[in-house]
Design a protein that fits this description.
Layout lengths: L2 H16 L8 E7 L4 E4 L15 E4 L5 E3 L8 H10 L5 E5 L2 H9 L8 H4 L14 H5 L2 H12 L10 E4 L3 E6 L2 H24 L8 H9 L12
């Protein structure tokens, strides 16, 4: 069932391992088939060395029912399901514990847009959620993680800010495909590292002006984008 989607999701999971975004099995990638409202995701605790498309689990987005696969899906599956329901137009999600982005999440700080490398991909700071409440942690922890992310985006466009830091936890990134979500996760880790180095180099670093930020973001995104080849 949905063989192409399972192959794409398997490849994306192997890509985050190759990119150095995961240690051991600390991460997962999912993908959505919008036509069938089906989500494919890495199985829980399976090593990347053993991961093949036939091990990828497929679920119904709206009900969470397992449609294909004998292994248990990732423990973060409820978070992914909430985000697919909340954010229209995304078809790939990455969760990792990559070092620099996770450090900012543990500090409970958004990542400021200190330079144009950041602005090429994020139209402003990478947001950080609030800490989950004790009740949220005790009841539907993974689903409530997704709900807290969605809450953070009440006034933000998830396509202009395609990554988030979950306070005390780690980063999530998304995109229109699993491969694009992986790219956004790679960029997030790099801008988190750059931001840490910027703060180490300057006593009072300032985000770049909004005009420069918008110039760089909009030349790569939106209807008037002119970066790259058509």
């Amino acid at each position: 069932m949905l063989e192409a989607l399972r192959e794409d999701v398997c490849a994306a999971n192997l890509a985050i391992k190759e990119a150095g975004l995961v240690t051991l099995t600390w991460g997962n990638v999912s993908g959505l088939d919008p036509a069938t409202r089906s989500m494919a995701i890495k199985p829980s605790g399976v090593s990347y060395a053993e991961l093949t498309p036939d091990k990828i689990v497929v679920l119904a987005v709206d009900s969470g029912e397992v449609l294909w696969g004998e292994l248990r899906p990732s423990s973060d599956t409820p978070t992914h399901l909430v985000l697919y329901r909340a954010f229209e137009g995304i078809s790939g999600i990455v969760h990792s514990h990559s070092t620099h982005a996770t450090a900012w999440a543990q500090a409970r700080r958004p990542i400021p847009a200190y330079g144009t490398t950041h602005a090429d991909h994020f139209r402003g700071a990478v947001p950080c959620t609030r800490m989950l409440t004790a009740a949220e942690m005790a009841e539907e922890y993974e689903a409530d993680t997704g709900r807290v992310i969605a809450e953070t985006y009440r006034r933000l466009d998830p396509h202009e800010h395609p990554s988030v830091l979950v306070a005390g936890h780690g980063p999530f990134a998304w995109g229109p495909t699993p491969a694009k979500a992986v790219e956004n996760a790679i960029v997030l880790e790099e801008v988190a590292r750059m931001a840490s180095l910027t703060e180490a180099a300057a006593q009072d670093p300032r985000p770049i002006p909004r005009t420069l930020l918008d110039r760089h973001f909009l030349r790569k995104h939106g209807k008037d984008a002119y970066y790259g080849q058509r």
